[in-house]
């Protein structure tokens, strides 16, 4: 339509000018038509401007400014389409881009289609020659992903799951360099941790680090670039000393408290802006030690918001005290009291009744807390702890429950279908609850939920609301965490069968950490807001966002 | 600030008096660099910017003139103590306690190592340990030591070191001298750590990371005078003592980092920190435990933890005996990529020099000399037809023509007369060897040194 308007416009203008010059009065219809055309032209101009500014933000590669209006919308879609994988990162559909193709004239639509197809083919061919790998699912999905002509959807993948793209790695290295604090004269930047070992091709887009090559190798020892509390925290994360969603968040907030205490505002800077900038390299450092969990992400967002909301006339001590109190209250409300509320809810609403046989998986601090509280309230039940290699966290859960006096059985996950006929309820902990109702938890949880469903045993997931995140995922491949593959190696009676695994070219060790459970297998989610079905998670998120 | 480095350079070198009666141990040349340059270099490489050096006035003077030490880019805060005093290492720490604001890394000046320091410090950080130390597998010294009559049969007092099955946690440490009736291990330790490995062939590198609370404890407890001899075994024992438990710690609401107990419990080593309840909470929620099989929580609820990193590869040597000194002269230059011949040395073309020899600055090496596997110090003059093999020649030495020096150590400013033949000898400072002398396996020192006992 735009083109036709453009084509017709000058024509119309000529007519009108002729009419004016001829001294004829413009009829009402002609005046209306004139007004319509002017409006259309204005709209087209505005859309062009919007598109141009949006492209400058979104485009990874610079777009030549001379490109006509029709080309830019096709270029970003072509570039992003090959990398788009279905149902991942937030989909942002700019309304203007959707409407622009609609404005295109029917004549040139076919031409544009043909142009786009040709460009896609060319890009696909060049990418395949570059990469040479064909085994990837992503590669096969590329030709399917290109958007239809109607609504080109721009999808952007988060950088942490594009490890196999060398451009993204370069960007990450540059970003870490930029985050170095300017005071330090030497090139003391946040080091980049390198991947270790052969990665299984399905997961080659994720990082895989080795515990024997800690990030502190590349840092100076009295660490000046990164606050010592954060270095200690990063080490504890990578060694697994602090593990579990709640523990990691609490430890993170504790470290942030120390950072805030030791912080002094430099001259000519505002605390609200400078402190946030100070925290950025720390967060990158922690991310490299171990990828951040959803709960940690939410905690960081909260802190950043609180810091930015500090009024500029506030004195430094006051501001610091205020921040420390905010952190204290966050931990108190969202973690401690939420745990208490969930336990109360579960016990009072008879979710744990006398004679119950409860199955738990791994070591979830919340589930252990609920069971201990129920036992204190003299409910008679017994627990079956299911465990899996290589972490064997179930042993720790077993220890805590037996210490309280609860009678427990311990099995490995391979025996789940054997033991399930005895079980009356399954209690699972969650690492995060995703916006489409999927539960992200330790690998093996979805297996347990599946088998429980097959046996018609109710599955209850316990999760605090601060772990709800607005990510959407339907499979465990896209976004996951790869742990150290050497953990899978076991030495029995002096022999290590997997000893030289790095030298075998066709052998890869995969140590996944998380998996997602679909909401059909989960019967109830117990949160501090009450007992909700899995599909109500987006509602809770919406309410939370409105509150904030 | 995370760690402060403290270098102990006041030691007298009591086990190698022949070398140290004129030159303080910290300034002995190893590979033509003063001995204390090596730990300073280690600290500098790792990223330290400031070091507190505890030393004597003599060493302080020597340091100010030495070129290599001036090359060191770190800020050296030199604290001098009395030379004659019986100041042990712990006493020295007590002396500098006002300067200490945070956890410390204590080094001895006679440590030459290429360890990756982050291994030791990571143990200290990750487990929030009270002490982390470095030990290394002892290597036999293969070089013949001058002045040794017969095989070395002196039973060196062995150290018994007990570690847990991960090899990192230090459970037991005692010297053979203290164990008269045999090695006894407390039942409480065995209950907590049923598998303990006891090692004897380890060398203590005297590199310790200590919490600030330990230094504060030392100021109150004046009976401890040596880190290695008394403080470390005390801390290791205290890990399993019943009194150091979480019940005694109270929450810190004020800004102090340490609580003081009054009364008879003055010698308690209390380690508390701000936000103790938060740390406790994180520990409770975490599904990690350092041991399996019993009902106790991580670290058995103990607040005091000692860790050790045992190096099995790489160089780690303490230069406190003559044998160690000779060994280290052979190995230390390999650590650095420096040219073996100093650019200012004047070496004639007809000199045969082996590739593993080191020539210092402003040397004059004349024709027809042969220098193999040796270290030659600065300002040395070697005249013609001299054969130097397997020897260490310090600074300012003059070797006249036709000498044959094998397996020997010649200290600074000595003069070897022409035609002398020295095998496995140690020539003291400023000594003159008469021409045509033939000495084998002797220690030639001045009479004034012989009078000292």
From TrEMBL, chain A:
User: Which GO biological process annotations does it have?
Assistant: animal organ development; central nervous system development
Return the Basic and acidic residues bias intervals: 10-32, 46-62, 104-133
Provide this UniProt record's keywords sorted from A to Z.
Answer: Cytoplasm, Initiation factor, Protein biosynthesis
Q: Name one GO cellular component term.
A: cytosol
Has the keyword Membrane been applied to this entry? Answer: no
Q: Does the keyword Cytoplasm apply?
A: yes
Composition bias (Basic residues) maps to 33-45
Family membership noted in the UniProt record: Belongs to the eIF-2B alpha/beta/delta subunits family.
The record describes the protein's role as:
Acts as a component of the translation initiation factor 2B (eIF2B) complex, which catalyzes the exchange of GDP for GTP on eukaryotic initiation factor 2 (eIF2) gamma subunit. Its guanine nucleotide exchange factor activity is repressed when bound to eIF2 complex phosphorylated on the alpha subunit, thereby limiting the amount of methionyl-initiator methionine tRNA available to the ribosome and consequently global translation is repressed.
- In Swiss-Prot or TrEMBL terms, this protein is called Translation initiation factor eIF2B subunit delta
- Organism encoding this protein: Maylandia zebra (zebra mbuna)
From TrEMBL, chain B:
One GO MF annotation is: guanyl-nucleotide exchange factor activity
Where does the chain cross the membrane?
A: none
Q: Where is this region: Disordered?
A: 246-268
The record's GO CC annotations read: cytosol; eukaryotic translation initiation factor 2B complex
* GO annotation, biological process: central nervous system development; cytoplasmic translational initiation; glial cell differentiation; myelination
List the InterPro entries hit by this protein, alphabetically: eIF2B_gamma (IPR051960), LbH_EIF2B3/5 (IPR056764), NTP_transferase_dom (IPR005835), Nucleotide-diphossugar_trans (IPR029044)
Question: Domain named Nucleotidyl transferase: which ranges?
Answer: 5-137
Q: Which residues form the EIF2B subunit epsilon/gamma LbH domain?
A: 345-436
Q: Subcellular localization, per the record?
A: Cytoplasm, Cytosol
UniProt keyword annotations, A-Z: Acetylation, Cytoplasm, Initiation factor, Phosphoprotein, Protein biosynthesis
Annotated family: Belongs to the eIF-2B gamma/epsilon subunits family.
Sum up the protein's function in the record's words.
Acts as a component of the translation initiation factor 2B (eIF2B) complex, which catalyzes the exchange of GDP for GTP on the eukaryotic initiation factor 2 (eIF2) complex gamma subunit. Its guanine nucleotide exchange factor activity is repressed when bound to eIF2 complex phosphorylated on the alpha subunit, thereby limiting the amount of methionyl-initiator methionine tRNA available to the ribosome and consequently global translation is repressed.
| Quaternary assembly | Component of the translation initiation factor 2B (eIF2B) complex which is a heterodecamer of two sets of five different subunits: alpha, beta, gamma, delta and epsilon. Subunits alpha, beta and delta comprise a regulatory subcomplex and subunits epsilon and gamma comprise a catalytic subcomplex. Within the complex, the hexameric regulatory complex resides at the center, with the two heterodimeric catalytic subcomplexes bound on opposite sides.
Protein name per UniProt: Translation initiation factor eIF2B subunit gamma
């Amino acid at each position: 339509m735009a083109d036709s308007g453009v084509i017709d416009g000058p024509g119309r203008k000529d007519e009108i000018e002729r009419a004016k010059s001829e001294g004829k009065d413009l009829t009402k219809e002609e005046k209306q038509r004139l007004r319509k055309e002017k409006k259309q032209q204005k709209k087209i101009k505005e859309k062009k401007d919007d598109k141009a500014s949006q492209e400058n933000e979104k485009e990874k590669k610079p777009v030549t400014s001379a490109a006509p209006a029709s080309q830019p919308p096709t270029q970003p879609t072509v570039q992003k389409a090959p990398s788009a994988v279905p149902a991942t990162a937030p989909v942002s559909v700019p309304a203007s881009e959707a409407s622009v193709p609609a404005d295109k004239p029917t004549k040139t639509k076919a031409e544009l289609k043909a142009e786009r197809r040709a460009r896609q083919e060319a890009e696909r061919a060049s990418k395949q020659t570059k990469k040479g790998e064909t085994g990837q699912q992503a590669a096969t999905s590329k030709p399917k992903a290109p958007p239809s002509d109607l609504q080109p959807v721009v999808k952007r993948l988060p950088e942490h799951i594009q490890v196999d793209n060398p451009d993204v790695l370069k960007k990450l290295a540059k970003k870490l360099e930029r985050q170095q604090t300017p005071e330090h004269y030497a090139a003391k930047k946040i080091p980049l941790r390198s991947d270790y070992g052969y990665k299984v091709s399905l997961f080659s887009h994720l990082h895989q680090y080795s515990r024997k090559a800690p990030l502190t190798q590349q840092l100076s020892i009295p660490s000046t670039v990164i606050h010592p509390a954060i270095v200690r925290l990063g080490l504890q994360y990578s060694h697994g000393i602090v593990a579990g969603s709640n523990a990691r968040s609490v430890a993170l907030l504790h470290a942030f408290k120390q950072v805030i205490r030791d912080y002094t505002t430099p001259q000519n800077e505002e605390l609200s802006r400078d402190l946030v900038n100070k925290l950025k390299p720390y967060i990158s450092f922690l991310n490299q030690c171990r990828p951040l969990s959803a709960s940690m992400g939410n905690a960081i967002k909260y802190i950043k918001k609180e810091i930015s909301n500090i009024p500029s006339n506030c004195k430094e001590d006051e501001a610091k005290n205020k921040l420390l109190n905010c952190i204290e209250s966050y931990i108190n409300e969202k973690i401690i009291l939420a745990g208490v509320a969930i336990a109360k809810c579960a016990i009072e609403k008879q979710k744990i009744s006398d004679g119950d046989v409860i199955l738990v998986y791994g070591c979830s601090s919340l589930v252990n807390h609920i069971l201990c509280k129920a036992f204190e309230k003299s409910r008679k039940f017994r627990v079956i702890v299911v465990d899996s290699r290589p972490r064997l966290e179930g042993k720790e859960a077993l220890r805590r429950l037996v210490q309280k006096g609860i009678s427990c059985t311990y099995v490995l996950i391979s025996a789940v279908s054997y033991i399930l006929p005895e079980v009356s309820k399954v209690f699972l902990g969650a690492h995060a609850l995703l916006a489409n109702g999927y539960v992200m938890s330790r690998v093996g949880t979805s297996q347990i939920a599946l088998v429980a469903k097959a046996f018609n045993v109710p599955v209850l997931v316990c999760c605090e609301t601060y772990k709800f995140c607005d990510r959407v995922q339907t499979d465990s491949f896209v976004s996951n965490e790869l742990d150290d593959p050497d953990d899978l190696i076991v030495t029995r009676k002096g022999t290590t069968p997997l000893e030289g695994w790095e030298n075998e070219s066709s052998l890869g060790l995969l140590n996944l950490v998380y998996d997602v459970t679909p909401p059909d297998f989960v019967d109830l989610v117990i949160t501090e807001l009450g007992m909700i079905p899995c599909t109500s998670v987006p509602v809770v998120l919406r309410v939370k966002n409105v509150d904030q | 600030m995370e760690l402060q480095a403290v270098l102990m350079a006041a030691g007298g070198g009591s086990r190698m008096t022949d070398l140290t009666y004129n030159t303080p141990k910290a300034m002995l040349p190893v590979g033509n660099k003063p001995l204390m340059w090596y730990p300073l270099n280690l600290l500098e490489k790792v990223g330290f910017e400031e070091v507190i050096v505890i030393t004597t006035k003599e060493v302080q003077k020597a340091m100010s003139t030495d070129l290599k030490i001036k090359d060191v880019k770190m800020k050296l805060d030199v604290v001098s103590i009395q030379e004659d005093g019986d100041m042990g290492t712990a006493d020295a720490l007590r002396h500098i306690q006002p300067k200490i604001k945070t956890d410390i890394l204590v080094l001895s000046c006679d440590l030459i190592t290429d360890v990756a320091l982050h291994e030791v410090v990571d143990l200290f950080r990750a487990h929030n340990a009270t002490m982390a130390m470095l030990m290394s597998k002892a290597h036999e010294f293969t070089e013949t030591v001058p002045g040794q009559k017969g095989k070395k049969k002196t039973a060196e007092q062995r150290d018994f070191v007990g570690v847990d099955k991960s090899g990192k946690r230090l459970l037991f440490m005692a010297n053979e001298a203290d164990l008269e009736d045999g090695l006894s291990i407390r039942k409480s330790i065995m209950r907590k750590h049923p598998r303990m490995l006891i090692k004897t062939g380890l060398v203590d590198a005297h590199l310790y990371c200590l919490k600030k609370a330990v230094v504060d404890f030392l100021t109150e407890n004046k009976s401890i005078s040596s880190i290695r001899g008394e403080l470390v075994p005390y801390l290791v024992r205290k890990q399993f003592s019943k009194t150091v438990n979480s019940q005694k710690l109270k929450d810190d609401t004020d800004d102090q980092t340490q609580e003081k107990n009054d009364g008879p419990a003055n010698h308690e080593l209390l380690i508390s920190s701000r936000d103790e309840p938060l740390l406790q909470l994180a520990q409770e929620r975490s599904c990690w435990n350092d041991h399996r099989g019993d009902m106790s929580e991580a670290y058995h609820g103990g607040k005091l933890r000692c860790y050790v990193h045992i190096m099995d590869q790489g160089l780690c040597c303490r230069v406190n005996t003559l044998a160690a000194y000779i060994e280290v002269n052979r190995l230390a230059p390999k650590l650095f990529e420096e040219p073996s011949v100093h650019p200012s040395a004047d070496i004639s073309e007809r000199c045969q020099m082996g590739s593993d020899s080191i020539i210092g600055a402003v040397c004059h090496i004349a024709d027809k000399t042969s220098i193999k596997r040796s270290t030659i110090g600065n300002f040395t003059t070697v005249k013609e037809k001299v054969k130097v093999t397997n020897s260490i020649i310090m600074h300012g030495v003059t070797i006249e023509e036709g000498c044959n020096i094998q397996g020997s150590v010649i200290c600074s400013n000595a003069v070897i007369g022409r035609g002398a033949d020295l095998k496995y000898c140690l020539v003291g400072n400023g000594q003159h060897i008469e021409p045509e002398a033939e000495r084998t396996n002797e220690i030639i020192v001045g009479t004034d040194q012989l009078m000292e006992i």
